[in-house]
Amino acid sequence: MTTENKTLGICEIKEFLQHRYPLLLVDRVLNWEDGKNITAIKNVTVNEEFFNGHFPHKPVMPGVLMIEAMAQTAALVSFLTMKIKPDENSVVLFVGIDNARFKRPVVPGDQLRMDVEILRVSRGIWKYKAVGSVDGQVAVEADLMCTIRNAADASQPAGQ
Fold first, then answer.
1. pLDDT tens, residue by residue, 35-54
2. Contact 38, 84 (CB under 8 A)
3. Confidence (pTM)
4. Which CATH architecture has domain 10-153?
5. Known catalytic residue at 19
6. What is the C-alpha separation between 141 and 132, in angstroms, rounded?
């Protein structure tokens, strides 16, 4: 696998992320640098399943899904950095979410730009700084920690 092309379309993203509709929340990777960072986008449309209930009278993307979209972006940069594609036995799990802040609503028609920086990797735990913005305004930010595990071991605590 070559990393000459620093963009990924949806078909390539699906090779690295096991998420599928309605939970695949990354539409395009704009750029990445191995071991450092990634920029991706989520096009937010009124057709999203979650808008049926959040909220029918004033659609707002749930904060937890903005965090999930940034986590999926983080998983992408991890797999790209390791130069591996996950198989059916791989799963990326949250270990922690710190300093999450929601600064503005994300609504249909917005394009959520996700900038994720790898802060460190230690003992199988990846730590990232993630920022989601719309039109240059920060919408969400958080420090994320994830680990990549074998699916058979996924039910065990992270420290095991």
1. 999 999 999 999 999 999 99
2. no
3. 0.92
4. Roll (3.10)
5. no
6. 6
pLDDT at 6 over 80: yes
For the four alpha carbons of 42, 43, 49 and 50, in that order, the dihedral sign comes to: positive
Q: Report CA torsion sign: 132, 112, 8, 21.
A: positive
Residue type at 131 in one-letter notation: V
Q: d(Cα 61, Cα 106) in Å, to the nearest integer? A: 5
Q: Are 140 and 156 in contact (CB under 8 A)?
A: no
Cα distances from 27 to residues 24, 45, 72, 77, in angstroms, run 8, 12, 11, 14
Residues 6, 19, 28, 54: which is the catalytic one?
A: 54
Check: CB of residue 76 under 8 Å from CB of residue 28.
Answer: no
- Residue 107 is predicted with a pLDDT of 98
Residue 50 parent element (H or E): none
- SS3 string, 26-39, reads CCEEEEEECCCEEE
